Amino acid sequence: MEQYLIFNQLNYPIISVVLLLPLIGAVLGLLFKSDKAQLWWGLGVTVATALASLPLYTRFDRTTALYQFVEVRHWLPALGLDYAVGVDGISVLLVLLTTLVMPLCVLCSWSYIKERMREFIFVLLVIETAMIGVFVSLNTLLFFLFWEAMLIPMYLMIAIWGGPRKDYASIKYFLYTFAGSIFFLVAIIALYVQTGSFFIPELMTHSFSFSFQIWIFLGCALAFAVKVPMFPLHTWLPAAHVEAPTAGSVILASIMLKLGGYGFLRFCLPMAPEATWYFMPWLIALSLVSIIVGGYLALGQSDIKKLIAYSSVGHMGFVTLGIFLLNDQGLKGAMLQMINHGVTTGALFILIGIIYERTHSREMSVNRALGAMMPVYVLFLGIFSLSSFGFPGTNSFVSEFLVLLAAFSKYPLVGALAIVGAILAAAYMLRLLQSMVWADSDGHGHHDDGDDHGHGAGHGHLLKDLNAREIGTLSFLTIFVFWIGFYPAPLLEVMDVSVTQLIDQIGNGLPPGGDDNLHQALTGWGNKMTGLFTPLRP
Amino acid sequence: METMLFLPELLLILLALVCFVVSLGNNPRTGFLQGTVIIFALLALFATTANYRQSGTLFLGAYQIDQLSQLFKLVLFAGLALIAWATPGLRGIAKRLHPEYYLFLSVSTLGLVMLSSAVELLTIFLALEISSYALFVAIPFRQPLSGRQQYEASIKYVLFGAAASGLSLFGMSYIFGLSGTTYLAELSPLLPGLIGSQPLAVVGMILLLCGFFYKLALFPMHFWTPDVYQGAANETTTFIATLPKIGAVILLLRLVSLAGVDISQLSWALGILAVASMTIGNLSALVQNDIKRLLAYSSVAHAGYLMLGVIAGSTLGQAAAIYYAIGYLLMNLACFFVLYHLSSDNRNLHLADLNGLYRRAPLLAFVLGAGVFSLAGIPPTIGFTGKFVLFTSAFQQGLYGLVVLGLINAAISIFFYLKIVRAAYLTSTTADSAPVAINFSSKLLGLGLILAIILLGVLPQRLLALAKAAVALL
Lengths: 538, 474
Prior knowledge:
- The structure holds 2 protein chains of 2 kinds.
- Chain A has 20 helices and 3 strands.
- By secondary structure, chain A is mainly alpha-helical.
- The termini of chain A are far apart.
- Chain B is built from 20 helices and 2 strands.
- Chain B has a two-stranded antiparallel sheet.
- The model of chain B has no long low-confidence stretch (mean pLDDT about 85).
């Protein structure tokens, strides 16, 4: 086992600390009775976890692609199942994203959650442990356990604290995710039966037969495509986002969707490289459809939260597009896009939560012309909207630019189609911004025009601008918008070696002459599809 | 020495006699009876534990004590004690019938215990009938005695039971006709060859197994399940839903392993039954509203999952089947324990009756949640680990189709299990806010069940090692 790893460079088990802090906090938190104490406790635990996770960044060795801070403990020797955790350049940033976003989830629930506070904080902290667990697991079964462990608390979060259609949304979320992960479990069993191991670094170095890779790829990809979510498996996301409470939406958007992208990078690419090349055209096509369909649907929404939910489908399309372009810029762009989407879309959901607390509506027609009464709110809304459609100088610009660069250098047609998505993003975000900030001044006359909701700008004096807690939450995320926007080098540096290693592992193409039946059967289609994407250059 | 090996059975017979003597009196004391049952079950448990490593044969080789039978006896005795513990007071049974009720429970358990040691076809049949007949009588005991559904349930149980026994005997006649012996030990070298060459042997085996499909509620012998679960009193259902399945598993393991480890026509036939059972069980459960009927269909589905390990036939597969059967006992017991305590007026509960359980009885809600999530196969419960080991063993034998179909079924089943959780945890009505009182010993049992379901799921190696050792000699 030693040949795969770098062991822990710190003299304490940092990952276990980060992993178990929220869980222990969740259990101890049950002792507090009052809601305020619960909130402070939740904030304390998440902040402590965030602080405890910082050495992962500062002490991270940027010169190696091996796993770092690794811990291995035997758990079920009969099956070869161990408690093995560690991070590499691909997962470390996502762990940090998780630990840094979670305190914000507590902060944005401060006045939003009104009932069953004790259970809420418990559920929130359990989700944190499960999500960190997925990113740090080096054992397929452990990965699956954490993957499934997220399911129940997230289901509860939507089903208890959700909106009016919470039953529908929570069941749909549960069924989609569970159905996807079932096939992932088959893949894990298949890998185990083939190699006798659950150990991810060991599985990554195995070379499997092509037909086996095909099945492994399909089994894993289905689970991750649901999570990302990729068209046509995306329909659970708008429902879940709209009904979930703010913290739930932030967790879903900022972290859970990243689990899908992370899964592709951790399982599909290294374990089934030839199958990855084989399926690349389909996945690129689906990513493009996600980008364009997500953007197009976002354009037609009148519910702000639904709009952002569909925009997530589009943004995550850039992530999968970057991943399956299978080159250096594409992968880095995709990973950076995951971080950026976590920051920006998380912030947008917090902003929606803030306005929902004030007007009790998420309709664009109700929440408009806020510019005059909530200047600070509008400032943040502007920053994050610009960031969302990749305005130069903000974080998303860097990542989308990298992905587009990768696309144009490989398949110009793909790049051209992806650009359409970027334009759509600008269109729907500007439409949102225009309506929420200025709607008043452009002749849409909102004053008492039979407005049943009774929430026009007429009651403007009732709407309070942001308080210190809300400003603090959003300012924290704003730092990242501009930091990554202007100086992404430190983050790229962290992932650099791991990405290079991953690209070496994938190789540079499907070996000619796949020799099995499935391949034969599909070759005709594959060639036709690949033909579409051949470089346009003469 | 041999008497020592037979001691657990003797203890059960003694228990039955004690219950019989008490039934002669006029004013039975239920608490005393319950305690007696638990104490005798525990004594039998200790007697088995003391001789756990022993083995031997009795009654001219028809009755064999080995690791496998010892392990199952432990489970059966522990199960009997737990069932008696989980249903204090026997509210659903007419007061004057309490001694007889416990008498029939112990006789039925005796039949199952004998089943786990029987290694000769006629002895097997005898044990099977002992365990069934006692239940035929116990089902109509439900209060009020003038009700109708318990008689319907009893008649259905008798008719299906008789049909299954008939098929089983018919199958035995084929097997005997082909091989000339009724001893499993003499059959085991002959049968793999016969199955390969004689279609009649496959038919005979399937017919023979029908008797156990009936006990396990596997398709096509599952039709009695929903009606009997619904018609029998809650405490009787708790018994029917748990122990007989354990008895069926051991015989399925013994009989199917006779056919050899290779994947044969028999395996395919069983595989089809397993998949049909899962699918029919899960799809029917989707539309149920009566919780006992829902759990009945869920048990049909679980019989299908369990068969995967039996069909895989490898050491791991058989061990997985045992492990899963034990897990199934625990999680089903957890569910029925909650139902029994909630249904203070002995009626059948509907999903809506669980509303707001989270407020009325937090502990019961948690026990129910653990049981249901375990049935659904969600980590970190024993239900997940069990399914995982089962599917892994089936995959190792190359039964890919079965694994995929099984997992799809697991995904379908999530829906109706979630309905239970949602009712208990998420819907709250002010009308139902009267708290449910449970006493200390029941609280203890509830906590114990939660711990067992989670701990055995997280740390399965001891139990799996025991199960592997038990099936090593099959």
